Amino acid sequence: MSLDSLDTARADYQAGKAAFERGEYRKAVQFLESAKTLVNVTSRFGGEVQIWLVTAYEAMGQRSDALALCREVSRHPDLQIRKQGSRLLYILEAPRLTARPEWLTQIPDLTALGDGDERDRLTAATIAPAKQSEKPAFQLEDVIDPQRVNTKDNRFIWVALGAGVLVLGGLVWFM
Hints:
This is Tetratricopeptide repeat protein. Keywords: Membrane, Transmembrane, Transmembrane helix. By secondary structure, the chain is mainly α. The protein is built from seven helices and no strands. The chain has helices at about 5-20, 25-40, 45-60, 65-75, 80-95, 120-125, 155-175. It is elongated and about 85 Å long. The relative contact order is 0.07.
């Protein structure tokens, strides 16, 4: 592999990671596939490219491609990459959990809202959260004056110490 192709592969890899993190999964797949073709897939860097490509495939909804590539990565020569691939394969092959509709919150689609339409402002006003009530839900109590606190000795500590000594004495006597 030439130095130019390695630099191009690194640039594509970084661009693919950045696109993935921005949520542009289609671009991420394109960049990462390009990097995969330019790099030795049995190298550590090639394994990293493939791991990112698996996650990009999954994010794009190409589950079969993600599973196939992940199975290859789980047999990678590098131990760390192989472990990552195995863990990722375990996650991808796990059964899908179903969620009840009442557990989910529906978010209205606001893409159709324009800038200056009166109807849009009315719709946005109905979606806006209600105003907070004037009275706070939690209110701190007034600070207590330390001079009003009863600090007289009520002999509780002496009774507790005496009871503790009696219990320990009884335990020692039975032994």
